[in-house]
Amino acid sequence: MTASQISSERIWQALSAVPDPEIPVVSITDMGMVRDVQVDGERVTVTFTPTFSGCPALHVIKGSIGEAVRGLGVQEVEVKSTLTPPWTTDWMNADARERLRQYGIAPPAPAGEQLITLEAEPTRCPRCGSLNVRMTASFGSTLCKRLYVCDSCKEPFEGFKSV
Amino acid sequence: MTLTAQQLSEQQKTALITRLQALADDEIILAQRDSEWTGHAPILEEDIALANIAQDEIGHALMYLELRAALDGSDPDHLTYFRGPREYTNVQLVELPRGDWAFTMLRQYLYDAYEALYLDALRASTYAPLAEVAQKAVREEKFHLQHTALWVERLGLGTEESSRRMQDALNTLWLYTEQLFTRTQDEDALITAGITPDPATVKARWEELVRAHLERCQLQVPTVSPLRLSRDQHREDLIYLLTEMQSTAREFPDAQVW
């Protein structure tokens, strides 16, 4: 099969099966990381945006995108990254937020526009839904998360940062 | 007006390369100092936090070096691992040995406040690729600032020992802050064209923010005048830092897989 027969819908579909390497319950399209898919004859260009600039998973994601598209029989794949507009957790879809919550990670609160602030945003316990939570560490096991404990149900949990 | 790489004059291009490298060098050296705490921080959460912060700073350095690469075709890895101490252009604030925890947190706080405000101003850059990088990095920097501001508060208002250590750290570090706001070679050409912010403007905002916070934490800002240093003046400490940081790359310069 050649690329000219492949629709961008099929490519989007294939990309929606590429998991985020650090949080495998969500895919890179759930996360809003894939910004654009262009099919030009035999050539496919996928543009994605990094979540955190120092994220070590970026190379893996770039590789997985190429692999997923080549898996459809496309020979020439270019994976480009863009910084504009900057990725925000507001692009994460509702379904992905719910899956994160079920996985035990508090989904991100709306990021809003105030970029420099000393106050952390409110977060709910993914287990009992209480807002009576405490941040126990402002950084976590990956760049995108931080650590909390719920004072209502006593559950420690990870929360997604809002960016 | 928005500028593209093609629209930059030769003088602007050269000045921008110098500024980008200075921004990247500060990030690289500070990240290396921070990473010296990996496995040694007082508690696990802080070990993780500092590793996260270091990782973000390296991410920012890479974005600056990619912008440089677009201008002169240089290789970010080569610039990082194969330049010697005489060629590095970082400020001395970031190369000072890591010291104790108070020193580490206060240095990071003073730097984070500077970086967050510098990036905030850089978002208005007329050079579009630079504005994009600033827009991205500033969102990450706010987490650093939240974290280190809290540590300054915790230690400044903590025990007699913690506030003494914090004050000692401030007495040393304050001397080195001026260098962050010194113009790089021919930067006037960039400032006039709105490509980079005037460091003096950033400094005014920084001083206001930092002084208010330090006072709230009952720390006295030293009254001595800060050191005037240029970015090609380094301490002996940088030699040892680079020797360690670059040892693997220099040992195996042709390695493709790490």
From TrEMBL, chain A:
<feature type="domain" description="MIP18 family-like">
    <location>
        <begin position="9"/>
        <end position="79"/>
    </location>
</feature>
<protein>
    <submittedName>
        <fullName>Phenylacetate-CoA oxygenase subunit PaaJ</fullName>
    </submittedName>
</protein>
<dbReference type="InterPro" id="IPR011883">
    <property type="entry name" value="PaaD-like"/>
</dbReference>
<dbReference type="InterPro" id="IPR034904">
    <property type="entry name" value="FSCA_dom_sf"/>
</dbReference>
<dbReference type="Pfam" id="PF23451">
    <property type="entry name" value="Zn_ribbon_PaaD"/>
</dbReference>
<feature type="domain" description="PaaD zinc beta ribbon">
    <location>
        <begin position="117"/>
        <end position="161"/>
    </location>
</feature>
<dbReference type="InterPro" id="IPR052339">
    <property type="entry name" value="Fe-S_Maturation_MIP18"/>
</dbReference>
<dbReference type="InterPro" id="IPR056572">
    <property type="entry name" value="Zn_ribbon_PaaD"/>
</dbReference>
<dbReference type="InterPro" id="IPR002744">
    <property type="entry name" value="MIP18-like"/>
</dbReference>
<dbReference type="Pfam" id="PF01883">
    <property type="entry name" value="FeS_assembly_P"/>
</dbReference>
UniProtKB/TrEMBL annotation, chain B:
<dbReference type="InterPro" id="IPR011882">
    <property type="entry name" value="PaaC"/>
</dbReference>
<dbReference type="InterPro" id="IPR052703">
    <property type="entry name" value="Aromatic_CoA_ox/epox"/>
</dbReference>
<protein>
    <submittedName>
        <fullName>Phenylacetate-CoA oxygenase subunit PaaI</fullName>
    </submittedName>
</protein>
<dbReference type="GO" id="GO:0005829">
    <property type="term" value="C:cytosol"/>
</dbReference>
<dbReference type="GO" id="GO:0010124">
    <property type="term" value="P:phenylacetate catabolic process"/>
</dbReference>
<dbReference type="InterPro" id="IPR009078">
    <property type="entry name" value="Ferritin-like_SF"/>
</dbReference>
<dbReference type="InterPro" id="IPR007814">
    <property type="entry name" value="PaaA_PaaC"/>
</dbReference>
<dbReference type="InterPro" id="IPR012347">
    <property type="entry name" value="Ferritin-like"/>
</dbReference>
<dbReference type="Pfam" id="PF05138">
    <property type="entry name" value="PaaA_PaaC"/>
</dbReference>
